[in-house]
What does this fold into?
Amino acid sequence: MTNRRQFLIACSSGIVFLAQSTSALPQGGPARGGASDPLIEDLVAGNRILAMEGVLDAMGHISVRSTARPDRFLLARSMAPELVTAADILEYDLDGNAVDARDRTSYLERFIHSEIYRARPDVRAVVHCHTASLIPFADSDVPMRAMYHMAAFVAEGVPVFDIRKAAGLTDLLVRDANLGKALAKTLGPKPAALMRGHGAVVVAASIPNVVGRSIYLDVNAKAQAQAIALGGKITYVEADEAKLRMSDAGEYARAWDLWKRKVAR
Amino acid sequence: MTNRRQFLIACSSGIVFLAQSTSALPQGGPARGGASDPLIEDLVAGNRILAMEGVLDAMGHISVRSTARPDRFLLARSMAPELVTAADILEYDLDGNAVDARDRTSYLERFIHSEIYRARPDVRAVVHCHTASLIPFADSDVPMRAMYHMAAFVAEGVPVFDIRKAAGLTDLLVRDANLGKALAKTLGPKPAALMRGHGAVVVAASIPNVVGRSIYLDVNAKAQAQAIALGGKITYVEADEAKLRMSDAGEYARAWDLWKRKVAR
Amino acid sequence: MTNRRQFLIACSSGIVFLAQSTSALPQGGPARGGASDPLIEDLVAGNRILAMEGVLDAMGHISVRSTARPDRFLLARSMAPELVTAADILEYDLDGNAVDARDRTSYLERFIHSEIYRARPDVRAVVHCHTASLIPFADSDVPMRAMYHMAAFVAEGVPVFDIRKAAGLTDLLVRDANLGKALAKTLGPKPAALMRGHGAVVVAASIPNVVGRSIYLDVNAKAQAQAIALGGKITYVEADEAKLRMSDAGEYARAWDLWKRKVAR
Amino acid sequence: MTNRRQFLIACSSGIVFLAQSTSALPQGGPARGGASDPLIEDLVAGNRILAMEGVLDAMGHISVRSTARPDRFLLARSMAPELVTAADILEYDLDGNAVDARDRTSYLERFIHSEIYRARPDVRAVVHCHTASLIPFADSDVPMRAMYHMAAFVAEGVPVFDIRKAAGLTDLLVRDANLGKALAKTLGPKPAALMRGHGAVVVAASIPNVVGRSIYLDVNAKAQAQAIALGGKITYVEADEAKLRMSDAGEYARAWDLWKRKVAR
It folds into this structure.
């Protein structure tokens, strides 16, 4: 069966055009539709925003759960987030298998995403990052605390995943489903977890929110480190205040609009 | 009654053109005049300068008291400061009601502005920000001190507003006039106040000065944190020195000229 | 007498053209010559380089001693360094009087320059700055120390000028010759002095060297603060090592070439 | 004998063209071939990437061992790394003599490279830098430790070279082969060494890896300093984890591709 589909190509020059693919697709192939799939557009924007804001460098990734098939998720092929276009987005099942990879290679650590989507039906978007400001907390026994309303979700608690305690000696990478399951277990019901000697994982119910959380987790880490260095008594945002604040599902909407405009330039 | 008016549109490309509005205006509508109202021009510039300098990100706002009607103030519609143009400026009364909103939405926290203008006849411009360098001091019991003449106003003292002490459990936002009044009460006669778990408010007698104070409050916070980390004895700018320095009403004039040229590019 | 002169205008767009001035000049007027005076070119470049590198913001200044008349020095009119062109350069005598100001206003603190040139025949270039990284050391009793060879001159010692100890209550500004003399006295034979609650002054035998010293004084301050925060024992560059290193008069030549190319873009 | 050769010129505008040289070359001249020598292309890219990422400023250098003649290495003439093109690359023997310098001057400290290539047959690329974040560790007795997998090589240990202990009073520069040998001895079999009062040297088996290590050594230094400032217990990447991670020879391949695209813009 030949399935004609169109892809939206967002070039770094800001020019947008259509490319056609006539590849034969397996049954049960990607549920995403034509050229203007807003989920793919947002996923491409999310990649570029996180690179622009310094949350991701050449490494790290962002994924989103498929709307049509909740047992699938979308993630770029193995490449630098800053360069991702719609044509680079692959669909994966919850075992971390690409549905239609063709000649495109997969991120080694895609199991971070697959196992979190499996364990957390409420999660619709996942970021894995190595943001420099988070590494001190990932390696330290000083817990992250919420500094202000823009990072209220931190008040839920940010557990630390130590791969050595979960799986003994490794090269620190989440290379398979078992390591992904161990990370998802440490994450539990929380919005984010740090990974010792590695980085962090951030989850949310939408792309704008997982991008917003990732960006403000970085700001919060720097602010908390600075507050500790001042040497005084610190009053953090408390859990009940944070819960009220987080009831606003569109808390990063205004920021998301600005970020999207900036990466579209 | 049909009231033909013209607005100055300052585009991000730096091109300026005129747009016409023929909307029916209520009696007692905006006192601002034609296309070249310098107050609106400066308010637009202030929005963009604070974004350029990293004092504001997608959130936060700057307002100015109306020259013609001191019981009114001007503030952008709910949007990212970096994108504000003259067409986005609304006029508000001191209850926080937009005079001519049409389909334009208002910032949730406009009561920060309205209640400070009500309580402080000397104040003609207000900035509300979440600058990252201020959050450590907002959450700490270490008071801000003036590090140098560019931030001499800090020597007046920067009180901290804890919304929980003023109003019990909230989502941390200044959502109504009562919360605005509580904040204005903490601010008292000072040039700035920190807001625990949230950010800061800065006031002055003009747009250039409130912008200058906001930018140098950020520099001062970083310098003070660094001075504390050095571990020695610190000699801050003293109140009498600061008072002399602040007698120069145009202390940020040269900087303002530069900043305006930069955002006009 | 009408004196036709040409000025080199270095525009921010990088375009260079000639402007003619036919103003009547007093006897003994500026010794600088035609359109391509390399000293003025370097002074303009120095202004822009220090702005580009973040050593100067809208405030602060750089001057150079006149080659033809060592009792004169060149300094921009009162304006932001980033915007200075050759047409903005004024000549001053050692009392801080502009030789040919016409309608151009002078920096209030030009006495920093005049009194240092008077006291220090070896000095041919002076920078006055408020670089944020220097303020913590200017207010602290922790002395600056040389961290590496690029800032070897710091090993000579960086005294702190406290205007209050020299002149009692002021607005912190060096507003007259007496305050300038007091600052020059604290500077003594050193390459730099900090100013409590204010900033710093840096001197050298050439524009490239005073620019290089100003830039690496900033880097050195950040590195020293970070070294102190590590909490271990620090081995600074020693005075005898520094003296050997400083014997190279062209130590910033390669950097100067790069900086000039960058601001010419 | 006249030897016609072509050089690849990589302009800062991204335009690439060919230049011809008809200089007479000595027997045993440079082994590098025509216009598209990928090693020279990568060396030029490495210079520009390290400048773009702030690892090098106007000073410092990167070299690569010749593929054809392992007793030779390639290094730019004495200039700012940001401006290096293929025509600026010289070939050196292991005594630090340029094979065909013509009128091009050499870096004073080329002996850092020559003596490391002599002592370490496994090393194929060397960076010498003065990155600001490394200076605090170079001057301190607090050892660098590996914070995360992107800088796993730090777990091998980063010795500190104190030129005073090796050679008594100097101007801190590695001016001759003896000083180069002393540095190489301190480096031993390690991937990097700090230089007290000076900077660092980083080595690897390829240009992408030495560039990657230099960039992430900088990130690691900042993260470690921040972790120490948090005041808690820190769990660093352990040597056995690092060894597993470092077994991936292409660990910086994805980053290298991104960096090369960025400097080619």
